[in-house]
Amino acid sequence: MARMSPYQPPVKDIAFLLEHVVGYPDIAALPGFEHADLDTVVGILEECGNFMAKVVAPTNRAGDKEGARWQPDGSVVTPTGFTEAYQQYVEAGWGSVPLPEEFGGGGFPRTVGLIIQEMMMSANLGFSLCPLLTQGAIEALLHYGDDELKQRYLPKMVTGEWAGTMNLTEPQAGSDVGALTTRAVPQDDGTYAISGQKIFITFGDHDLSKQIVHLVLARTPGAPEGTRGISCFIVPKFLVNDDGSLGERNPVHTVSIEHKMGIHGAPTCVLSYEDATGYLIGEENMGMRIMFVMMNSARLSVGTQGLAVAELAYQQSLEYAKERRQGRAIGATEDSAIIDFPDVRRMLMTQKASIAALRSLMLLNASYVDHSMNEPDESVRKRADEIAGLLTPICKSFGTDLGNELTSLALQIHGGMGYIEETGMAQHVRDVRIAAIYEGTNGIQAADLVGRKLGVRDGASVMEFLASMREIDAQLAEAGDQFTSIRAELTTQLDALEKSTVWMLRTGRTDPNAVLAGSSPYLRMWGLCAGAWLLARAALAAQATGDAEVAETQLVLARFFAEQILPQCSGLLNSAIAGADDLFALDATRL
Amino acid sequence: MRIVVLVKQVPDTADVRKLDLNTGLLDRDAGEPIVDEINERALEVALRYKDNDKGTEVVVLSMGPENAIKSIRKALSMGADSAVHIVDDSLAGADALLTALALSRALEKTGFDLVIAGNESTDGNGGIVPAMLAERLGVPLLGFLTNVEITETQISGERQNDDGTVNVHAGLPAIMTVTERFDYARFPNFKGIMTAKRKPVETVSLAELGLDAAEISGLNRSTVVSTAERPARAAGTKIEDDGTAAATLVEFLATNRLI
To answer: How far is A92 from chain B (nearest CA, A)?
Structure first.
């Protein structure tokens, strides 16, 4: 049962989606992406996938079994294989692909960067968090740092030689970031003295890189209350001399690391800042705006984590289902592999179709981000930005909720062995569980969708998007009888989605609590419809390629999802529009 | 110093590999073709030398169908400087003799100080082409090495056989082959992949190598006469021990020349 690698990067599936479903050639046609044609991208993804499978994936088990360790001298050690894998990752340059050429990056679209992230996350989710956080820090600096700050920090962060972190959370400030109390006191030389304690800082300290560049949210004296009074600072682990060399140790210390349910390979730190030297990014009180730039991109990446771990778990559950023999399927004359049983097939098909839907959704979101940043026409950029904004909470929430559900299914396929840690399935379930929580809990994502995104242009933005999804109806009508059920179900479910959307828009004006009450089921309705819509697009595109095998595969996936998973959407309608009354009818003492 | 590395695109040993039963030729459509791994190790030897002596030129030489360009690009993305790709319809089904003839002409045309090759391909398993090249080119062959030291003027290394270790050396120009004792190759890095697209690949036909039909038909080539599927595994013979089992077993072993 030995495999070459526990992970086989699905580059062919990805290439198909890029070409036929999310319109990658249109992205490659944008100014600045001339070198990023589809063929080049697929070639890069093949090599990158090979790297992730051969170098990163083998470190995943050790990451879970050993975990990161805090040493008595205050340093943090990562599990066996992490430092070597990270060094090779830096040498290979994979982190630099989507970053600006001006600072040593490859200048490729965000869409390509997201795929590289997906493959790394599948290979080893814990490990992948280090480059992910570094990317977040890079984005904040890129958009708001002054030239001096950028020149001093970006080049080595782009290569990955220096890692980055994001420091927002404090014991009393999680979902409510505005409650943070870390102080930033201005000094005579223009720097700030940062003091306070930050918790849940992923890769807050480690042995993968010589330097760590912390991005820290803190409050200057006299700043307004809440989120309006937050500023953003760079606080490097080592001060950087003018010649670029590393100087004094800055007083940022790891007090402890957390013992978590999963992603053991990633050190999750409590960091103590004791008058550490910090450099302001942008202006005072701009902190939240800066964070949001990073957060939106991070949310899409986290949604992709759900997809990535689900993909890995699926691959393993498929292998297992083919090899494990138990009992006899109807009509079998000898012991059957469990893949021959209908219920196991349901679990496999649910995983495969859902993964395909999720991947299309993530890539579609990323492609809109690319359009929003690179289209020459401002109105096109604006509209792309609106759509990216709408899709982000859906991707984050649906991606991670499905991540939990699908990894659990994959474990179920393994039977009792799935529950045994040594089999490796439990790790996937444990690893992915945090994704529905961090980077804005899924509840927050739902609130963002109904509270912020639905209101864009008074609802016109979301209604236009719904209308664009309906356009597929005409194509499905002409595509043949085999698309009839997909067309019918999609129409029914889009009706339900539209009905709930109209209710949300109307009710939100006078009763925001009612809208919040239904926000989570409503968000799921969106995920289901968008996923089914994209699978239908894939099936239509596959038919057009003329390749019979590809056409059949995509048709079956789209049909299975449309007929057997999508209908959950209308089942959620009532809870989406029920309002808050029954949620609060029993007061807290009777719950 | 110019080092030429021989690269062959072969089917992945992890995939199903098939012969076309009509032609006896490799079914190149069954599975994804890759660079034969031993060639990557050979390339790594050249690249490490180049790491230390930046003036070194590493040229990839490959004989194969058009789609072999994929393997050539991979070699370029790992750090080779340029490539020569021999493509010609009349090379389909070429045996070791014809392969060595074509490669030797290309090597004469390109010129070299050192040729590094794998000891044996995973599809043909002949292990003989480098020796034929050395013969045609009149240069020494250091084959089946387990390690090597390269200088501007000579190479030296070890070869292991059943009796022990042999130390060998030769002056340049020379040909050497590597075994799996050599290190794995570096992964292509992202910048390498991007710059590989701009590196020159010279495509040559047999005519451009000065080889004509007469010279080729004059070769004493081996050709495939017939191909058949491997017979399905038959059930094994069960021997019951009624007292004669030992004798039956010995008879079986002897008939099958196992003792």
So the answer is: 4
d(CA A143, CA A132): 17
Give the pLDDT confidence score for residue B222 in this predicted structure: 84
Where would I find the beta strands (DSSP E) of A485-530?
none
Read off φ and ψ for residue A256, nearest 5 degrees. Answer: -165, 165
The type of residue at A43 is G
pLDDT grade, residue A507 (50/70/90)?
A: very high
What per-residue confidence (pLDDT) applies to B216? Answer: 86
Instruction: Give φ, ψ of A455 to 5 degrees.
Output: -80, -10
Q: State how far residue B12 is from chain A, nearest Cα, in angstroms.
A: 13
Q: How confident is the model at residue A3 (pLDDT cuts 50, 70, 90)?
A: very low
DSSP code of residue A338: G
Compute the distance between CA of residue B94 and CA of residue B217 in angstroms, rounded to an integer. Answer: 12
B190 has a chain A CB within 8 A of its CB: yes
Q: Are A384 and A371 in contact (CB under 8 A)?
A: yes
Residues of chain A contacting residue B189, judged by C-beta atoms under 8 Å apart: 91-93
Distance CA A97, CA B245 (A): 68
Backbone torsion region of residue A263, taken as left when φ is above 0, otherwise alpha when ψ lies between -120 and 50, otherwise beta: left
Q: What confidence score (pLDDT) does residue A2 get? A: 39
CB contact (8 A) between residue B77 and residue A4:
no
Q: Which residue in B62, B64, B60, B61 sits closest to B26, CA to CA?
A: B64
DSSP B27: -
CB contact under 8 A, A97 and B197: no
Q: Are strands A246-249 and A238-240 parallel, antiparallel or unpaired?
A: antiparallel
Q: Are A100 and A108 in contact (CB under 8 A)?
A: no
> What's the predicted TM-score (pTM) here?
0.91
Which residue of B14, B73, B189 is in closest CB contact with A91?
B189
Q: What is the mean pLDDT of residues B246-257?
A: 90
Which residue from B74, B191, B197 is facing A93, i.e. has the nearest CB?
B191
Question: Cα-atom radius of gyration of chain A, to the nearest Å?
Answer: 24
Strands A252-257 and A268-280 come out as antiparallel
Q: Does A54 touch chain B (CB under 8 A)?
A: yes
When the pLDDT of each residue in chain A is averaged and rounded to a whole number, the result is 96
Tell the residue number behind the tokens 């304690």, with chain if given. A197
Give per-residue pLDDT as tens, B207-251. 999 998 888 888 888 888 888 888 888 887 788 888 888 998 899
Query: Which residues lie closer than 8 Å to A151 by C-beta, 6 or more apart?
Result: none
Distance CA A217, CA A234 (A): 9
In our burial notation (b when 16+ CB lie closer than 10 A, e otherwise), range A213-223 reads bbbbbbbbeeb
Host H or E run for residue A138? helix A125-144
Nearest C-alpha of chain B: how many angstroms from A307? 24
Cα–Cα nearest to A365, from A409, A416, A301, A415? A301
Average pLDDT over residues A258-268: 98
For residues A303, A305, A306, A310, the Cα torsion angle rounded to the nearest 10 degrees is: 150
Does the pLDDT of residue A228 top 60, yes or no? Answer: yes
Q: What ipTM does this complex have?
A: 0.79
User: What does the pLDDT look like over A33-74, one tens digit per residue?
Assistant: 999 999 999 999 999 999 999 999 999 999 999 999 999 999
Cβ within 8 Å of residue B144, ≥6 positions away: B119, B159, B160, B177, B179
> Rounded distance, CA A451 to CA A513, Å?
10
Catalytic residues of A: 439
Give the DSSP H or E segment for A210.
none
Which domains are assigned to chain B? 2-217 (3.40.50.620)
Residue whose structure tokens are 């074509």: B102
